[in-house]
Specification:
The complex is a heterodimer.
Chain A (H helix, E strand, L loop, with lengths): L1 H14 L2 H22 L8 H12 L2 H34 L1 H14 L8 H7 L3 H26 L3 H9 L4 H39 L15 H10 L3 H29 L7
Helix pairs in contact in A: 3-11, 4-5, 4-7, 4-9, 4-10, 6-7, 7-9, 9-10, 9-11, 10-11
Chain B lengths: L3 H13 L12 E10 L6 E11 L4 E5 L6 H9 L6 E6 L2 E4 L12 E4 L11 H5 L1 H6 L4 H14 L15 H13 L5 E5 L7 H18 L2 E6 L2 H7 L2 E5 L6 E6 L14 H23 L6
Helix pairs in contact in B: 6-7, 8-9
Classes of the chains: A mainly alpha, B alpha/beta.
C-alpha cells in the first residue's frame, strides 16, 4: 500500500532528523528534572512516576472516561452551535451594511464580557445545568468565529469581485463562488482558535458549577474533566489533579489537530505553498 | 479527450475574424471628452481631462504614460468598475457610460486582466477558465470544461488543469488568465500592466504568447504599460498620455505587420519608433517629476 510506504518513509525521515531528537531529549530532560525536584522536596507537585501510576489506574476506571465523554460532548455541542450561528452571522455582517449596522454594535457590547462571567446568569436562565455549561462553552467559541468570518470576508481582494462581475456573475454567484470560498481559510482559523477557547471555558465552567455530591463523579449532573480536577483537589489526590490537567491538554491538542486536518481538507489550494 | 465540439463551436468565431470578414469586426471603443475628477467637484483631483481617442476594432492599442497619470482610471471606466465625471465612452454603437449614466455595467464583452492577476486561488485552473460561461448560463458545466480544455491546450497549458493558481509560475498564471478571459468571447481585452512583475525573459515569452493568441482570436486589445519597448512590440497604436490630468499627447501608429516576433526588436524602424516614444514620454515624466508627483 502506498500509504504504508509513505508512512515508513516519514517515520525514517523523522528518526533521522536533528530537530526530532532535540525535541525528544528536551522532553525527557524536563520530566527528569521534574521527577528529581519532586523527590528532593524542592517542588510540591507530585512526581511524574506517581502521575503515571495513577494514570494507569484511571485508565481502567469508567468514571474517568465518563468525565472525558461529558467534557467532549459539551465542547463539541457548544462549538458546533457556535459555528452554525457564527458563520452565517459573520457572513451576514460582512455582506450587508444594514445588517452590520444593526448587529455589530450589540455584538461589540456583549463581546468583551468574558464567557465565565456568564456562568451564574447561564445557570439561572437555562433550564438545566448541562445546557448552561454548553451555553458558556458556545460563547467561548462564538465570538472568535464571528470576528474571523467578518475579517476574512471583508478583506477579500476587490479584484476577485471585479473579475467575477465582469464575467457576468450574479449577486448570488458572487456570494457562493467568491465570498464563501474566500472566507473558508478564516473560518478554519476561527474554528481552531475557537475550540481552544471552548476547552478553556468548559473546564472552568465545570469547576464553578460543580458536580453532584463528591464521589458521584460522572453522575447524572455536573462531572466532566474540569470537575474531575476540582474533585481530586477536594479529595486531596494530587496525582489525579495532574492527570486531569494532562488529560485536558491531550483533549485540546486532539481537537485542534482534528480541526487543522479538516481545515486542510476544505482548503486544498493552501497546501504546500 | 475529444475536443471536437469545442472546435466546432469555435469555428464560426474564427470565420468571423477571417481576413475577408474584417468589415464586420466589432470591439471598437470610442472615448470622447472623458473627464474624471476624484473627490468633490470643486477641490477634487482631475485625473483624466478631456480625453479623446479611438481604440480600433481588432487592433492592439497600447496606452503609455507617467505613473499615476490616470491610465488605469480610464481602463476602470471602460470595464465599468468606476464612474466618469463627464464625456462618453462607446463600445461599437453601445453607450457604455456618458451623460445620465456615469458608470458602465461590467460585462463579459470587456474582460480585464489585472496587474497582479485575479485568478481565483480556491479554484483549480480548469475551474477558473470555465468560470465565465457557467455563471453566464451560456454553457453547461460539462460543455464549459470541455471548451476550457480546448482553450488551455491551444495556449500550450494542457497539463495544468488540476493545479491551483498558487502552484504554477506567475507567467503561467497570466496566460491562464488570458485564456479565462477569452472563454467569454469578449469584444475587448483590457490588460492593465499584466506583465509588470515578470522578469524580462519571461516577459518576452509572454509577449510572443499574447501576440500568438491575438493573431488567432483578433480580439480588440487595450493594453496599459510603462514599458516602451513592450508598447511598440505589441501595439498597432501607441497612445502616449500626458502627466496628470491625463489626455493623449501623441498617438503613434506602429506600421509593423503581424505576426511579429522578437527579431523586429533590432530592426531600424523599431528603434525609430522607440526613440520617438521615449522622447515624448520623457518630456511628460519630467513634467510629472517637476509637479512633485511621487513615483508609485
Amino acid at each position: 500500500m502506498p500509504t504504508a510506504v509513505a508512512f515508513t518513509k516519514r517515520a525514517s525521515q523523522l528518526l533521522g532528523s536533528v530537530t526530532f531528537w532535540r525535541g525528544t531529549v528536551a522532553i525527557v530532560a524536563f520530566i527528569l528534572i521534574w521527577e528529581i525536584a519532586s523527590r528532593t522536596g524542592l517542588s510540591r507537585v507530585p512526581a511524574p512516576s506517581g502521575v503515571v501510576l495513577t494514570f494507569n489506574d484511571l485508565m481502567r476506571d469508567p468514571s474517568y472516561w465518563f468525565s472525558w465523554y461529558l467534557s467532549v460532548r459539551r465542547v463539541f455541542t457548544g462549538f458546533i452551535a457556535a459555528m452554525l450561528l457564527g458563520i452565517p452571522l459573520g457572513l451576514g455582517m460582512a455582506v450587508s451594511r444594514t445588517f452590520y449596522g444593526i448587529s455589530f454594535p450589540v455584538f461589540e457590547v456583549l463581546r468583551p464580557i468574558p464567557p465565565l462571567a456568564w456562568v451564574p446568569a447561564a445557570i439561572i436562565f437555562w433550564p438545566t445545568q448541562e445546557l448552561s455549561i454548553m451555553f458558556v462553552t458556545f460563547l467561548g467559541a462564538f465570538y472568535t468565529v464571528v470576528i474571523n468570518v467578518i475579517g476574512g470576508a471583508q478583506t477579500i481582494d476587490v479584484r476577485y469581485f471585479q473579475a467575477a462581475r465582469s464575467m457576468g456573475s450574479s449577486g448570488w454567484d458572487i456570494f457562493r463562488r467568491i465570498i464563501l470560498p474566500a472566507t473558508i481559510p478564516s473560518i478554519v482559523v476561527g474554528a481552531t482558535v475557537g475550540i481552544g477557547i471552548a476547552w478553556a471555558v468548559v473546564v472552568a465552567a465545570e469547576m464553578i458549577s460543580g458536580g453532584g455530591s463528591a464521589g458521584s463523579m460522572g453522575g447524572a449532573k455536573g462531572g466532566g474533566l474540569g470537575f474531575f480536577i476540582w474533585n481530586s483537589y477536594v479529595g486531596g489526590s494530587y496525582t489525579q489533579i495532574v492527570v486531569g490537567m494532562i488529560s485536558i491538554g491531550i483533549a485540546g491538542y486532539i481537537s485542534s489537530a482534528l480541526l487543522r486536518k479538516m481545515g486542510e481538507m476544505v482548503t486544498p489550494w493552501l497546501r504546500d505553498q | 479527450m475529444n475536443y471536437e465540439p469545442a472546435r466546432s463551436r469555435g469555428s464560426p468565431d474564427l470565420a468571423a475574424n477571417a481576413p475577408g470578414a474584417q468589415e464586420r469586426r466589432t470591439g471598437a471603443i470610442r472615448i470622447a471628452n472623458v473627464v474624471k475628477i476624484y473627490g468633490s467637484e470643486g477641490a477634487g483631483i482631475r485625473a483624466v481631462d478631456d480625453c479623446t481617442f479611438d481604440v480600433p476594432a481588432g487592433k492592439i492599442t497600447v496606452v503609455v504614460g507617467p505613473s499615476g497619470c490616470g491610465k488605469t482610471t480610464l481602463l476602470n471606466a471602460i470595464a465599468g468598475f468606476h464612474s466618469i465625471s463627464s464625456g462618453t465612452i462607446y463600445l461599437d454603437d453601445t453607450l457604455l457610460c456618458g451623460p445620465g449614466r456615469p458608470q458602465a455595467d461590467p460585462g463579459p464583452d470587456r474582460i480585464v486582466v489585472f496587474q497582479n492577476g485575479a485568478l481565483f486561488p480556491w479554484k483549480t485552473i480548469i475551474d477558473n477558465v470555465s468560470f465565465g460561461p457557467i455563471v453566464q448560463g451560456r454553457l453547461t458545466r460539462k460543455e464549459s470544461i470541455e471548451k476550457a480544455r480546448f482553450m488551455l491546450a491551444e495556449s500550450g497549458l494542457r497539463n495544468l488543469e488540476s493545479n491551483y493558481p498558487g502552484e504554477i509560475s506567475s507567467g503561467m498564471r497570466r496566460r491562464v488568465e488570458i485564456a479565462r478571459a477569452l472563454m467569454n468571447d469578449p469584444k475587448v481585452l483590457l490588460l492593465d500592466e499584466p506583465y509588470r512583475a515578470l522578469d524580462s525573459l519571461t516577459k518576452s515569452v509572454m509577449h510572443e504568447a499574447l501576440l500568438e493568441t491575438f493573431d488567432r482570436n483578433q480580439v480588440t486589445i487595450f493594453f496599459i504599460t510603462h514599458d516602451l519597448e513592450e508598447a511598440i512590440f505589441l501595439g498597432d497604436h501607441v497612445v502616449i498620455m500626458t502627466t496628470r490630468p491625463c489626455r493623449p499627447k501623441k498617438i503613434l501608429t506602429v506600421d509593423i505587420p503581424h505576426p511579429r516576433d522578437y527579431s523586429i526588436l533590432t530592426a531600424k524602424r523599431f528603434r525609430e519608433y522607440l526613440d520617438e516614444t521615449v522622447e515624448a514620454v520623457h518630456e511628460e515624466a519630467l513634467k510629472a517629476f517637476a509637479a512633485g508627483e511621487r513615483e508609485r
